[in-house]
Each structure stands twice: as structure tokens, then as C-alpha cells.
Design a protein that fits this description.
The protein is α/β, with parallel strands linked by helices. The chain contains 17 helices and ten strands. Helices cover 54% and strands 13% of the residues.
Length: 383
Amino acid sequence: MSRVNPISEIVARKEIVVCAGAGGVGKTTTAAALALQAALDGKKTAVLTIDPAKRLASSLGLKELTNEPSKVNKRKFTSAGLEMKGELWAAMLDTKTTFDEVVTRYAPSPAQAQRIIENRFYKNISSTLSGTQEYMAMEKLYELHADGAYDLIVIDTPPTRNALDFLDAPRRLTDFFESRVLRWFLMPYMKTGGGIFKVANVAATTFLRVVKRIVGSDVLQDTAEFFSNLEGMYDGFKERAREVAHLLQSDATSFVIVTSPAEDSVTEAMFFAARLNEAGLPFGALVVNRVHPKIGDGVDVRPSKLTKLEKQGGRAQFLAKLIDNEEAFMRVVRLEEKNLDALARKVPRHRWVRIPYLEQEAIDFGGLSLIADQLFEARDKIS
């Protein structure tokens, strides 16, 4: 019996699609292909990528992607033989630029925002601190959705071993900024009014003497000034983190897990699905990418094949090598099916879309369109 393609269902009903999974499984390409098809079907669609590789921009016919969405020229679709009914916009997260925008939004005054942005400690952490990229990805997603300019927003999340880092990042980042221990140690360097705190804090002072010899007093001063300038902004950070969490848990959002049949990727997909369930986040579909097709029924046909091919004039040594290659291929197929059987015990197959291993890479509209066709038309045929 025919069933509804889960990807088609998601695109028809949702406003946000979060593509997640292990690194190297085709998340970015899947997100781009999904957004492409939505735009072809008439939706004004934005795809936000975290992947700094330029191949996505090239495949969309853009010279580069920036932090602000760029519209893909309609002529690009026409020249590829595609009828564009909607619009496709694309952006690549710039963590530093987005962080600057967040600071400007929540700072009590333009002068305070400028002091933070020009602070050397801030410049160092604004794109390198653990969790910053994930926080800013969610911040940018929220901003694009709140703007109301798009029917659908598709985002691919950073590749990470801890599957829900990007969801937990806002809390971890605000916890870091509010760290009482860190602020306690920096207290001797914190400014208030026009002067420096003079505190009788023997432990902090002793600790700082050691640290100062290692990193220098300027680093400590910059760090202290950064935290001092953040005063009054914590509530804004926390409120936005709550709003982002609410949006991700709402009916407007759907998570699409992307995996390959490889054991490590399957293991991470199962873990991610479990975490989504625990966190009460809406799981929509599982895309199993790069699946090798089955050949034959698994019966050992080597002797009969070899005899038949020899009778047709083939040289035995080359024919044997050819059959060896086929058998090696089938071992890969059997291993993949074993991994996918384990996955099926955790994620129901009716939420799957299987994409076969394709020789053609998604380097242009043709490649993306081919993957989009598979995404929206494929069905899992294993019972």
C-alpha cells in the first residue's frame, strides 16, 4: 500500500526544518535539495548552512554565501530546465557577525555595545568559544523566522558528536557568561564606576598572580572588562534562549535526521532520535543517504556465472576478478542492511526516505535536483 512521503508531508505543513546528524553524511546537500524542491513547488524558501565549504554556493549558482540570505537568480533554474514557482534564498552562518548583532541588540546603549565588540577577549571568543557557533545558528534561525519573510526555513546543524549540542548551546553559553567562579577570580580586575575593585580576596589574588605570569595582565584586564560590560545583558540572552527552545519544540518545526548506512552514522542517528524524544522535539523523517543497491537474491551463483561467461568467450582470470568485485560489493550491501535493520528497531521505517548511492555529486542544480527527486519520491521498499 502506498504511503505519504514524510519529506513531502513536512515541507507542506512546517515552517522550519532542522537537518541533523553526523558529519559527512550529506546533511548540507540534503538541506539544499529539500529547500530547492520547496522553492520549485512555490514556497519562498531560505536555506541556512553552517558548512563553510563553497560547494553549496557553487551548486546554487552563487559566487559566495554571506550571513544575510541571497536570492538565487531565477534564470539559473530556467537554464537548468527547472520551472521555479517560488523563491530560493541561501545564507551561510557568520558566527562573529551574528554575535555582534546579538550584542548590539541587547546592550543597554550603543556605546556599551561598541566597547564589547572592540574588546580583545570578545574578539577571541566570539567565533571560537565552545557552543558559540551552535548558539548563533539558533539565533540566526530565530531571527529569520521572526522576520516572517519566508514560508520555509531549512537549516543544517553543525556536525557534532554530541547530537544536541546546538540545542543546549544557549544555556551553556549564558552559564559561562554568568560564571560566579570566573567572576570571583577576576574581581580584582573588574571596574566599577571609575576605578578598580580593591578586594581582600587572598585566594583570587594568589591565583591571579600565577595566571598573570602565564598570560599577562592585559589578557586579564580585557577579560574583566568584557564581563563588566556584559552587566545588564544576561536577561536578554536568557529570554532569547527560552524563545528559541519554544520555537524548536513547536508544531512549526520538524527535525530531519540524515544518516548513511555506515555503522558509526547509524549509531549516532539512533542516539539522536532518542535524544529528540527525550527533549520533546518533533521528529519528522529519517533520510538514509548513499545506500548501495541490492544485486540478485544472495544465492551463490559464482560457478554457474563463471561457466556461462566462459562459454561466451570470456577469459577466466578476468571473469573471476569481475565476480570477486561483485561479491565484495554484496558484502558491503549485506553489512549496510544489517546496520539498517538495527536502525529500524529504533526508528520506524515508515518515517524513512532512502537515497541510493549516486555517482553524480551535487555540484550544480542538476545534481541537487536529482537528489531532490529522490527525497520527495523515494520510498523505503524493505518490509
